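Repro:
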Amino acid sequence: ALSFRIGEADKPPHALQMLCAFDGRQLFGGSPMHPAGPPPVLVSGIDSAQTPGVIARFTGPRMDLAVTSETPVPGVANATGPLHMVVTLPESRVGRSEPLVATGHRGAGDLVCIEYADAGHVRIVLDHWGRWGARSGLIPVDYGIPHEIWISMDSLDASPAQGPGRPVTVILDGEIALSAAIAPYPSSPAEVTVMQNRINGSNSDPAFTGTVHLVERLGAASIPMPRS
């Protein structure tokens, strides 16, 4: 098993560092480091940087990617706040739409889902019950690798702020996939369902059928800034 740890050096210039171990044996890295916060994008088995001398894709058996947290952020509740997930999208679901998160209840709920447009593209859709929602344009994706998704919406917070709400924001692999100035319906923590469409929104299938590598709630923390 290969394991990686990412952090910042304890001493200036506080550069990003990585430690790699194979079956418990350290291969490189190891300088004292502290957590650097969540990385913007997680990719496994593909060289998107086109490094000279490196084959573009891992050619061995399909890898099982798992993400673990060694140092939880103090004071961050696990059952509230924005949503962070790492998933591999299902293949052969072109033309279907599956849920990422639903809040509220039937008749007064909101559903963020992913629509599999074709073999190389998806759309992110916000279904706001009984009213106009929002739909992204075509987003290129590779169905063979994991993708990182962050979702921020007021109905995910334990105590939503008063006054004008924040836009519903979905970040996919470091880029803003959807930003909609739509105020979600109020929702209790018990009415938040991840990867399931329990509010029976008509624009999505009942459940997400891809592979889920990581799902976590950020509590009082915010989603990261997009890369651009």
